[in-house]
Amino acid sequence: MSKLKTKESIIDSDIKRKYKLQAEGVKVFYDDFMAIKGIDMSIKANKVTAFIGPSGCGKSTFLRLFNRMNDYVDGFRMEGKITIDGGNIYKKKINVEQLRKQVGMVFQKPNPFPKSIFENVAYGLKIQGIKDKRFLQEKVEESLKQVALWDEVKDGLNKSALALSGGQQQRLCIARTLAVEPSVILMDEPTSALDPLSTAKIEELIYELKKEYTIVIVTHNMQQASRVSDYTAFFYMGELIEYDQTKKIFTNPEKQQTENYITGRFG
Amino acid sequence: MISLEQNKEALNQAGHEMFSLCKKQLENAREAFLNHDSELAEEVLHTENRVNALDLKIDRDCERFIALHNPVASDLRFVLALRKINFDLERVGDHAYGISKYIVEVDTPIAPGQLEKLRFEEMYECALSMLDDITEAYNEEDTKKARKVFKKDKVLNKINIESFKIISEEVQKDPKTIDQYLLLFTVIKKLERIGDLVTNIAEEIIFFREAEVLKHRKKKRAKKD
Questions:
Q1: Burial class (CB within 10 angstroms; exposed 0-12, middle 13-18, buried 19+) of B187
Q2: How far apart are CA A204 and CA A147, in angstroms?
Q3: Topology of B2-224 in CATH?
Q4: How sure is the predictor about A8, in pLDDT bands with cuts at 50, 70 and 90?
Q5: Nearest Cα to B160, choosing from B186, B188, B184, B181?
Q6: Segment A162-182 mean pLDDT
Q7: Cβ-Cβ contacts under 8 Å for A21 (sequence gap 6 or more)
Q8: Over the stretch A112-146, which tens digit does the pLDDT of each residue have?
Q9: Taking an 8 Å Cβ-Cβ cutoff, which residues of chain B contact chain A?
Q10: Domain ABC transporter spans what residues (chain A) (predicted)?
């Protein structure tokens, strides 16, 4: 009996390692409107998972469940269970600030604070109470290097972040997210406001970052989903229609609805 | 979206045209060969230019379709399949051209007895019937019809293998017939090759419709015959 228990716990920890994020029977309501209609989904660690679907399909709502960003929306209510590394993040005693440190987010439009480049990246660490200047400097440099922005800004760390280009600002926002050492990065259309060159830089960055982080990205750009993601989930009217390896979704999807969407015949 | 649909349909129509043109070329080459009709053979040689021009057009349009529409899933499979089908059909056209060229260049008609011994007409009929099946399969996007050609290709292969032995025996009996038999042997090889090309086209139609790759998978293909 004890042997069996050991086996089960090994299997259990394997699943936790394999799947970073899991949703079980998740329903989301905004007052009476059901935005997510019962979704089960497991997202693999150190992979890029893309959420695609027409506007209003629930993909951004679903994404924001993983760091409880919907909590602030009026009338929001959730049923079901969301876990990160097996732990329920909607438990009453959960520390939401700690959760958001673990699950960083990058938004559609770059949103640097009206502060210097250095202060932007160090911001998260400072509000955690870290004052050690040397540590902060090292962390800022490390984060800016991770997003390949260091060489471009190292001589002007005290300049305003708002003076950077759109693409640089978005990489700065990613650096700001990385500085607090999350394990998951959620990206909500991170390149929709950027030019093709800046988009390419962010996509290369996503590819590099997945070695250390689990990344979930919402995108309306089909080519981007096929280029950067390992797995793709297609949402429609609050339901998860199909979820599979990206190479399968974009060559031979199982569902006709998915095929119609990715080939642009439906939206 | 309208543009993608329109361009895809235009490509599809060009594909239909290529099937019809190459089929006509092979039929005319047959008539020219069996009746030693050098006028008809000349017509096949002239029409080869149209086949080549259409081949280039389809190739170029497929490239543009990929570049401009970034197709995925069934749209991508369609354009990839059409490109290969076009290539194979153009080769069928080349073989029809080759057969007709012999008629223009060789003065003496082939003796009917030699054709019979080698089951030449049966082989030609089989190749044309395969081309008919595959044209219908393409027009109707019907993979069941496409699969019909796999069995017929085995008939072509059998006649081709047997022909070697027959020709060897006949030439030993009467060495003066060597030129005629060598010519027939070359045409038989072309017909056998046409069978292979039609089989490739069938595989492409199945890939486009069912996303299944049959290339180099003889066993699985045989099961479905």
A1: buried
A2: 9
A3: Methane Monooxygenase Hydroxylase; Chain G, domain 1 (1.20.58)
A4: low
A5: B188
A6: 95
A7: A41, A42, A43, A66, A82, A83, A84, A184, A214, A216
A8: 999 999 999 999 999 989 999 999 999 999 999 99
A9: 1, 4, 70-77, 211
A10: 21-262
Report the pLDDT averaged over residues A8-35: 82
Helices (H), chain B: 2-34, 38-69, 73-105, 112-117, 120-140, 143-173, 178-210, 218-224
In a domain, A267, yes or no: no
Quote the minimal CA–CA distance from A218 to chain B in Å: 19
Reported ipTM: 0.76
Contacts of B71 in chain A (CB under 8 A): 263
pLDDT at site B217: 73
Burial class (CB in 10 A: 0-12, 13-18, 19+), B62: buried
* Tokens encoding B213: 């790759």
Q: B84 vs chain A: nearest CA distance in angstroms?
A: 18
Specify the residue for token string 């092979």.
Answer: B26
Task: Determine which of A221, A246, A251, A263 to mutate to test the interface with B (most B C-beta atoms within 10 Å).
Answer: A263
Low-confidence ranges of chain B (pLDDT < 50): 219, 222-225
Shortest Cα distance from A261 to chain B (angstroms)? Answer: 10
- Residue where the block lists tokens 């292969």: B157
Q: Are B110 and B180 in contact (CB under 8 A)?
A: yes
Contacts of A42 (CB under 8 A, 6+ apart): A19, A21, A22, A23
- At A15 the pLDDT is 56
Residues forming a β-bridge with A39: A26
Using the beta-carbon criterion (under 8 Å), do A263 and B74 form an inter-chain contact? yes
Strand partners, B173: none
A34 secondary structure, DSSP code: E
Cα separation, A160 vs A116, whole angstroms: 4
The per-residue pLDDT for A3 is 44
- For residue A247, the chain B residue with the least C-alpha distance is B73
Which residue range(s) make up the domain with A23?
A: 2-262
Count of structural domains, chain A: 1
